[in-house]
Structure of Ribulose-phosphate 3-epimerase:
Amino acid sequence: MDKPIIAPSVLSADFADMAAGLAEINNSGAEWVHLDVMDAKFVPNLTFGPKMVADIRPHSKLIFDAHLMTYEPENLAELFAEAGADYITFHIEATVHSHRLIQKIHSLGKKAGISIVPSTPVSYIEELLPFADLVLVMTVNPGYGGQQMIPQCLDKAERLVKLREERNYSYLVSVDGGLNAETAHLAHKAGVDVIVAGAAFFGAPDKAAMVKKLKGA
Ligand code: DX5
Ligand code: ZN
């Protein structure tokens, strides 16, 4: 199996110097940039909006995954598409008309990701799987970086990988929260495609070495 894609989260970067954070990601061997958007309603924290994404877009050629931890993500999809996100990932718990939102994201020429919090079962998104480009399995309760992983959530990632094989779906499976050099092997075992890492990446003195560890190289 291929090594997973690594998506460092700028949540753990220095917000006063995002360009430097982006440069560290660009030079690390990571392939994606993970953008944690929080609204202080869906999650108990507030981060940044589309202007931040538009401003940092010229600083990286990597794939941008906007992880919208916001209610009514349908009202934000267009703004993040215009800002230069490649994947627009929303929470199934935060909207009613998820299928319509996937259609909207696709009509904007972007990839659509669905995310589930630890208490949401895979069965809840089963009908949407044929339409998804990415499924982001939260392995912590969203809202903060640097939390401890809830390892049971990896079972859902593994199920999603198996379901894709059985049913010939094409989404990528991503895990987000508490991934570090010690826990990455659980993600490898589950067969995930994308590993998000915030605290582990930005806390590492040698970013390239951390990316290798997260990849299991
Ligand atoms: C949590 C965010 C994560 C977070 C991961 O709400 O969705 O992307 O940045 O951070 P770490 O890797 O520090 O757990
Ligand atoms: Zn995230």
